[in-house]
Amino acid sequence: MASDTAKAGSDAAILLSGVVVALGGFPALAGVDLAVRSGELVALRGANGTGKSTLLRLCAGLTPLTRGSARVLGVDVATQRDTVRSLVGLLGHDNGLYSDLTARENVQFVAHLVGAGTSDVDAALDRLGVDARVAATRAGALSAGQRRRTALASLVVRRAQLWLLDEPHAGLDSAARSELDGILREATRSGATVVYTTHESDALGATVPRTITLTSGVVARDVMEHSR
Amino acid sequence: MNTVLAIARKDLTIEWRTRTLLARVVPFALLVLVLFAVALDSEPLILRAAAGLVWLAMLFATMLLVQRSFDLETADSALDALLGFVSSSSKVFFGKALSLFVQLFSLAVVLVCAAVVLYGARVEGGGVVLLVTVLLTATVGLALVGTLYGVVVANMNGRDSLLPLLALPVLAPLLIGATRATEAAFGSDTIDVSNGWAWAALLAVYAVVFGSAGAAAFAPLAQGDS
Q: Residues 77 to 116 of B: which have CB under 8 A from any A CB?
């Protein structure tokens, strides 16, 4: 694993070495070594409490590093968390939407924050298949799938280089899951790196390029598609 | 600055849609003033207590507005997402404080007008300038402290009751300063306008202290760092 980390070199989107994160004294991550290359699509698996969400929040600059070293998109997570946050798009269990704003207003708000324009908002909504009727509907009145797509449009509009998605398939029906899978693959084709957590073995069918399994806060398995 | 304004505008847009201030907080604060008047039932006593009653009502209303402000952020884990979209967490602090300030200042104007109508309070001459200054500095202080303690309790169970328990003691100096300065602006026998300016200056210092503390502490509090 350590050799993999070294081999990833400068093109690594995520480079973790001996990472420990203690939450309330409990080691949620207990020595993680991991390298994810730019443009990879990675599924992060594991039972509840194995550290999947903590790993995503660490990489998003939202949870502090206790020990070890962590670089995300070349930025040191330990010392430059604000910079990391500005480069990474994290979508947690929830969608982070304001239910009293319309879908479009939610994405427009993000566009204001990141300095994107109206054309970027239109393009992001179009790319995610959020039509004019849905865009004009308050987020609180949208279906789970529509809310997920709106949240993903926010990641697109901010041009996140690294997408960190915490159980993005949860609560979606099979059609919405297929749509989401397509969106994630398209994101990697356009240069983004995508890491998502899942309980399920086949969230992206049989074609998920890389699956990492966490157990008790450490990487237990790391399987590339070609090695299956 | 654009980020701060965008966050404040977002909160104010939601407020305009949901009418929380107009439909719930303003009636509540006016009710507090009316009930105090009924309870005191003495015109000289009411007139003397007018400034204090206005700021007590402001403190209670602040708790409601702060809770509402952070309910918006915790309902769909929006605060986590928001922190991911800004280059500095302090911008979120000042954006939310700005939105609270606009709402609280509007409420303070309504309550002072209510004090004039209900309690017979009078503001004349130099008292007007002092009163406007006090309303500005005290509501800035309320907004900053409210935002700081709002994020402290944002992810806690029982935050509705914890917020007043934690914030009201910290707001006691602001209550005293704002009350004394407003008494001076109202032309009270106990304090004159010139002394009121010293209290207004104290309110400004209070706002600067909590503005600095909030900017520094907001990120670790919002992210739950230990």
A: 77-78, 80-89
Residues 6+ apart with CB under 8 A from A227: none
Nearest CA in chain A to B14: A100
Spatial CB neighbours of A171, under 8 Å, sequence gap ≥ 6: A144, A148
> How do residues A190-211 score in pLDDT, each as one tens digit?
888 999 998 765 555 546 788 9
Grouping H, G, I as helix, E, B as strand and the rest as coil, residue A199 is: coil
Q: What is the CATH number of the domain that holds A156?
A: 3.40.50.300
What would the two tokens of residue B95 be? 């954006």
Contacts of A113 in chain B (CB under 8 A): 3, 6-7, 82, 85-86
Q: Is B190 helix (H, G, I), strand (E, B) or coil?
A: coil
Cα angle B26, B28, B33 (rounded to 5 degrees) comes to 95
Q: Which residue among A24, A101, A114 places its CB closest to the CB of B85?
A: A114
Query: Which structural domain range is residue A52 located in?
Result: 39-64+80-227
How far CA B219 is from CA of A50, A156, B98, B101, B224, in Å, comes to: 26, 25, 17, 20, 8
**Residues B85-97 pLDDT 10s:** 887 889 999 999 9
Residue A143 confidence (pLDDT) above 60: yes
